[in-house]
Amino acid sequence: MKNTTMVRDLPEQERPREKLIAHGVETLSNAELLAILLRVGTKNVSVLHVAENLLSLYKDSGLSSIVKLAPAQLSEIAGVGPAKAATILAAIELGRRIAQEPFYQKTAVTTPDDAARYIMPRLRYETKENFAIILLNVKNQILSFKIISVGILNASLVHPREVFEEALKNAASSIILTHNHPSGDPKPSSEDIATTHRLVKAGQIMGINVVDHIIVGNNKYISLKEQGLMD
C-alpha cells in the first residue's frame, strides 16, 4: 500500500519541478525543494514523503541541522542513500558559497549588521569555535577574511602576533574580530571579553583599529561594540 500520493499522480502544476518552472523557486516549500534534489522516492513512498520525513527528523533544531550531517548519516535515512545524500550536501555547499560571494572586495562594512551578514554563512554551521578576523581598508571595504584559530576561545589560542601579522600582511587599516558559538547562543563569555580587550590594546599599539567583535550563534549575533564591551 502506498504511504502517500505519488508525485506522478499530482496535477502537473502541483509537481515540484513544474511548479518551480512556472511560478519561481521561491514558491516552493522546503519539502518540495528537497524533493527536486532527491528526484525519486521509493517503490511505495513518494519523493515528497521522503523529503517530509527527512525534515521531520530535525523539526526541533531546524532545517540548518542538515548542514551538520555527515554523508553517511544522511544516507541512512529511508529513501535517501549515498547518491542522494551527496546531491543534497553539494547543493547546500553551493548555497553557502553563493552566500559568501557578494561581500568580497568592494563591500563596505559600516554597521555590525553588515559584518554579521558577511560572517554568518562562514561560521554559523561550524561545530567547533572558529576565531577569525575581517580585514578592512581605509574605506571600510573588506580586504580578506582569515581564520586565526579553531577551538575554545582563549588567550593562548588567539595571540596578537598572529592577528596583527595578517593585518600587516594585507595592509589593513582596521579589523573586525569574530567567532562562532556552536551552542547557538552568541552571549559573550568572560574569556571572550578578556581576549577582545587584549587585542584592542594590541591594536592601539600597532596603529590598527579593532572596530568590533562579532559573535555569531544560530542565525543571531552579538556585537561587543553595541554592548559597550570593547573597552
UniProtKB/TrEMBL annotation:
The keyword Zinc is annotated on this UniProt entry: yes
Single GO term (MF): metal ion binding
Gene3D superfamilies recorded: Cytidine Deaminase, domain 2
Keyword Iron-sulfur tagged: no
Family under the similarity heading: Belongs to the UPF0758 family.
PANTHER family: DNA REPAIR PROTEIN RADC, UPF0758 PROTEIN YEES-RELATED
Protein name: DNA repair protein RadC
Organism of origin: Pectinatus brassicae
